[in-house]
Amino acid sequence: WIAGVRRFDTVESLLSWSKVASVHLPLNRATRGLLDEELLRLLPAGAWLVNTSRGALVNESGLVNLLESGHLAGAAVDVLESEQPADRRELSALLSYARTHDNLLVTPHLAGATFESMRATEVFVAQKLRAFLTEKT
Q1: 83 belongs to the catalytic site
Q2: Top-confidence residue, 106 or 43
Q3: Which of 90, 109, 122, 135 is the catalytic position?
Q4: Cα–Cα distance for residue pair 56/34, rounded to 1 Å
Q5: Which class for 5: exposed (0-12), middle (13-18), buried (19 or more C-beta within 10 A)?
Q6: How does the average pLDDT of the chain come out, rounded?
Q7: Quick check: 33 and 57 in contact, CB under 8 A?
Q8: Residue 125 and residue 37: Cα distance in Å, rounded?
Q9: Burial tier of 48 (Cβ tally within 10 Å: 0-12, 13-18, 19+)
């Protein structure tokens, strides 16, 4: 055990204790739709949800219901259940809700799109290309 760190054995007990829940999970068969309305309702009244992981982890309509009811104080996401193609993105319950409410922040899903990360990616690709071309000669 680490001083100041609390361990939870279940997602339910973690959410029941959390005033802010930040989602950091991979998307797979076991996690798709994991955070449905029933599970999110375990968050204490006035809690916040942050999802910068994968949109399909959270049931959008359930999240909207909890935001509308005031159970959740707010949420912030940079991922949607369906981000592509663009016409499916426009059907998002979260985008519709965010257009008329202040307790939901939706930002573009840019992940690590900083100047530094883009430069590192460009250097990485250039090195791979050079290695490939060098091996060919």
Answers
A1: yes
A2: 43
A3: 109
A4: 8
A5: exposed
A6: 88
A7: yes
A8: 42
A9: middle
| Block residue for tokens 């809700």 | 97
Task: Decide if 6 is catalytic.
Answer: no
Catalytic residue among 24, 54, 90, 130: 54
Q: Is 54 a known active-site residue?
A: yes
Looking at residue 91, its amino acid is L
pLDDT 10s digits, 120-129: 888 888 988 8
Catalytic residue among 37, 41, 71, 83: 83
Give me the pLDDT at residue 86, please.
62
Residue 126 carries which side chain, given as an amino acid letter?
Answer: A
Cα separation, 119 vs 100, in Å, equals 37
Mark residue 31 as left, alpha or beta (left: phi above 0; alpha: psi -120 to 50; beta: remaining): alpha
The model's pLDDT over 75-119, given as tens digits with 9 standing for 90+, comes to 999 888 776 566 666 778 888 899 999 999 988 776 566 778 778
